Amino acid sequence: MTKTPQTPRNQRANGAIVGACLAFAAGMAGMAYAAVPLYDMFCRVTGYNGTTQRVEQASDVILDEKIKVTFDANVGPGLPWDFGPVQRDIDVRIGETVQVMYRAKNLSSKPTTGQATFNVTPMAAGAYFNKVQCFCFTETTLQPSEEMEMPVVFFVDPEIVKPVETKDIKTLTLSYTFYPREPSKPVAAVKDEETDNRL
Q1: H or E, element range at 94
Q2: Are strands 147-156 and 81-85 parallel, antiparallel or unpaired?
Q3: Vertex 148, ends 146 and 151: CA angle to 5°?
Q4: Span of the secretion signal (predicted)?
Q5: Which of 6, 71, 158, 164 is 20 to 30 A removed from 109 (C-alpha atoms)?
Q6: Closest C-alpha to 152, from 107, 94, 90
Q7: Coil, strand or helix: which one is 162?
Q8: How confident is the model at residue 6 (pLDDT cuts 50, 70, 90)?
Q9: Whose CA is closest to 108, among 140, 148, 144?
């Protein structure tokens, strides 16, 4: 049985199919790589999953109504730290900018670095919890036995009293978990390493 030779049209069609498949595979790989930062950005914009908002300035509206904010702290596996809030809860006026402190201590005999993740519960309130300043925005390195107090400056957006799902919330919990992290190298050190590797 003889094979029918492929016409130029068939060859072009097959090439287009192969090209489309390769483009699809490359696109899926790119989406997988971008999934984590995109999800993180989505959470920060929407407050989804209790993610708090980062703002540059304090609220200019303060209500007479108060809300209780409680503070939670955890340490992930592999980070030898003692970590907790200085005070367990406060009552604040909605819209009022306040500062609270967390305290961390390195219990090991060597420098260790951590970075905190955070969320607010109930999760619906995450979009209304605004941080002006927070240690969670950067990594933290503690020397052996070093203890450090770390501030969080925040306010609860007065808009929280308007939506049906949040207007009756009387207590929020701000929760942090510190995880171990390799300290970032200064840009100059990275360039020196790249130069050494080329030699």
Answers
A1: none
A2: unpaired
A3: 170
A4: 1-34
A5: 71
A6: 90
A7: coil
A8: low
A9: 144
Average pLDDT across the chain, whole number = 80
Q: Are 89 and 173 in contact (CB under 8 A)?
A: no
Contact 72, 174 (CB under 8 A): yes
**SS3 (DSSP) at 152:** strand
Task: List the one residue out of 122, 123, 129, 128 whose CA is nearest residue 159.
Answer: 128
Q: Is the predicted pLDDT of residue 9 greater than 70, yes or no? A: no
Tokens linked to 134: 């927070």
Q: Specify the CATH architecture of the domain 66-180.
A: Sandwich (2.60)
Give pLDDT tens digits for 59-92. Answer: 889 999 999 999 999 999 999 999 999 999 999 9
Q: What is the DSSP letter of 78?
A: T
Residues facing 104 on adjacent strands: 83, 148
Q: Of 155, 85, 167, 166, whose CA–CA distance to 121 is shortest?
A: 166
Q: Answer with the residue of higher pLDDT: 50 or 145.
A: 145
pTM, two decimals, is 0.66
